[in-house]
Design brief:
transmembrane, membrane, alpha+beta, single chain, DUF4191, elongated, 49% helix, 10% strand, 5 strands, 235 residues, transmembrane helix, DUF4191 domain-containing protein, 7 helices, 2 domains, 5-stranded mixed beta sheet
Length: 235
């Protein structure tokens, strides 16, 4: 008796690289009306510079001029890709900026190499939805507040005291992400961490992170749960 062969469902075809870039461009253009002109300038300027250099350098011929133009085109394409990536990142984060859990999204997806962070906050105010997140890296321990400084200062001070008590002489940096004028914009948070002067080795980063994780969090927030749904524990 013949057995019916089950057809293996085909995996959905992933869009090609060019199509992905086009989708990123379309998304960015919806939130950044100047992106078209910026990309045009980024592409044209290197070509003009390379052409000017080709004409100014003594002894240039048609072949060298063509090579300079090709180099300018490649440089223009590279400049476009770099600018599009940064503007797209800014546009993506602008959609979630100000929402509870936005800092956690950055720590989950955009942390640079050498840094360890969690999308779960270490402290949350159940009424205002303000939160404090923690990241550990070569620059020490960083506490990141999400919300106005007037409401997050107390939580930051409490977490800083815990770190000093458990982490010893580890440096603690405080960063604010919120509506305050001197707050760090959400799309610049990951780059802000990399500017902190290194004070720890890779082994020390791992040891400090494990030690701080043993403290647990102020609220029992399962991974992936939005801080908006968190509720304070009752004594």
């Amino acid at each position: 008796m013949a057995r019916s062969k089950e057809k293996t469902p085909k995996k959905p075809k992933q869009p090609g690289r060019l199509k992905q870039m086009w989708q990123v461009f379309q998304m960015t253009r919806r939130y950044d009306s100047n992106i078209v002109w910026i990309l045009v300038v980024a592409f044209v300027v290197p070509i003009l510079i390379s052409l000017a250099l080709a004409l100014l350098i003594p002894g240039s011929n048609v072949f060298t001029v063509v090579l300079w133009i090709i180099a300018g085109v490649l440089a223009g394409i590279l400049a476009m890709l770099i600018i599009l990536g940064r503007r797209a990142e800014k546009a993506a984060y602008s959609q979630i900026e100000g929402q509870p859990g936005a800092v956690g999204a950055v720590l989950r997806s955009s942390l640079k190499r050498g840094w360890v962070g969690s999308e779960m906050p270490v402290a949350v105010n159940g009424k205002t939805q303000d939160a404090v997140y923690r990241a550990v890296g070569r620059g020490g321990v960083v506490l990141i507040s999400e919300g106005p400084k007037t409401r997050t200062t107390r939580m930051l001070d409490e977490e800083k005291r815990k770190i000093v008590r458990i982490g010893g002489n580890v440096g603690v940096t405080v960063i604010s992400v919120g509506p305050d004028e001197d707050a760090v914009p959400l799309h610049k948070l990951a780059r802000r961490l990399t500017r902190i002067k290194p004070t720890l080795t890779k082994a020390e980063v791992l040891a400090v992170n494990n030690r701080l994780n043993s403290m647990g969090t102020k609220l029992p927030i399962p991974k992936g749960v939005d801080p908006m749904k968190a509720r304070p524990q009752r004594g």
